[in-house]
Specification:
It is built from seven helices and no strands. By secondary structure, it is an all-alpha fold. Helix 2 packs across helix 3 and helix 5 crosses helix 6 (121-134).
Length: 158
């Protein structure tokens, strides 16, 4: 994966998106850019991350609605990027009702956009959180994923 892209995305998510900053609004965008530059992220990397976030918050367009008999097959490139663990994680989130067909495809598209060689499940978890947070009507899915990830981590620590 690009060396620092995940760092920028997670930082923006934790420090701006959860504080209701919107990367599409120019005033908010400038505050985010200034904050990221202040802590040392390069302008090119910042712009690329903000573009990624804008792409992931887009509404579905021409999404083919699968039937109950349809299944998702991962391309060779997707399999290479996600690996067995990443695919298993996505399938688990689908089975739990946390990801829907649209959010799953946004997650996979987002990974392809990052041009990652391979992806760790920890990074995939963050990307799923960011995408669910950015989608309208996905509040409950976001809460469910957050609970799954962070409550499980607290239990393992004790």
């Amino acid at each position: 994966m690009k060396q620092h892209m995940m760092d920028v995305l997670v930082y923006v998510f934790e420090n701006y998106m959860t504080e209701h900053y919107n990367v599409k609004e120019s005033d908010h965008r400038q505050v985010i850019i200034n904050g990221l530059q202040k802590i040392g992220f390069s302008p090119g990397l910042i712009e690329e991350a903000l573009l990624w976030l804008q792409q992931m918050s887009r509404a579905p367009n021409n999404l083919i609605v699968p039937t109950s008999h349809s299944s998702r097959h991962f391309s060779q490139k997707e399999q290479q990027i996600l690996g067995h663990d990443g695919i298993a994680f996505i399938e688990y989130l689908m089975a739990q009702g946390i990801l829907n067909h649209h959010s799953r495809e946004l997650l996979i598209d987002g990974l392809l956009y990052l041009k990652a060689d391979n992806i760790e499940v920890d990074d995939l978890q963050w990307l799923a959180l960011i995408i669910l947070f950015s989608q309208p009507d996905q509040e409950q899915a976001f809460v469910d994923l957050e609970r799954l990830l962070f409550d499980a981590a607290e239990i393992r620590e004790h």
